[in-house]
């Protein structure tokens, strides 16, 4: 079964403060890369959790699987901008 919820980091907004990496206790971020947020274990992310994103001072974290967002996020296969109307 594919994972349906995990954080997506916007590298243009992120200032690498490390708050999100410190916050998560589920091993989603690679602590060895701190303070840079590197998502390495998406399977550990808790469905619906926004713990790291709510603490980010720059709004750099969104979630794959968040129905309030449209489009499929990073890795989108649409050319010239995302055309998707549902999360995948
Ligand atoms: S959403 Fe929650 S479980 Fe997932 S990476 Fe952030 S703090 Fe960890
Ligand atoms: S809390 Fe936000 S700004 Fe800080 S490292 Fe995480 S994504 Fe980047």
Question: How is this fold's topology laid out?
Answer:
Layout: E1 6-9, H1 19-23, H2 51-55, E2 61-64
Antiparallel strand pairs: 1-2
The protein binds iron/sulfur cluster (2 copies).
Explained architecture:
Strands 1-2 form a two-stranded antiparallel sheet. The protein has helices spanning 19-23, 51-55, and strands at residues 6-9, 61-64. The chain has two helices and two strands, in the order E-H-H-E. The chain is low in regular secondary structure and 88 residues long. The structure holds iron/sulfur cluster (SF4) (2 copies). One iron/sulfur cluster binds at residues 7, 23-24, 26, 28, 45-46, 49-52.
Based on the model shown, name its key terms.
single chain, 88 residues, little secondary structure, Alpha-Beta Plaits, two-stranded antiparallel sheet, 2 helices, globular, binds iron/sulfur cluster
Q: What topology, given as strand order, has the largest sheet? A: 1-2
Structural class by sheet pairing and helices: little secondary structure
**Overall 3D form:** globular
Biggest sheet, in brief?
2 strands, antiparallel
Number of strands: 2
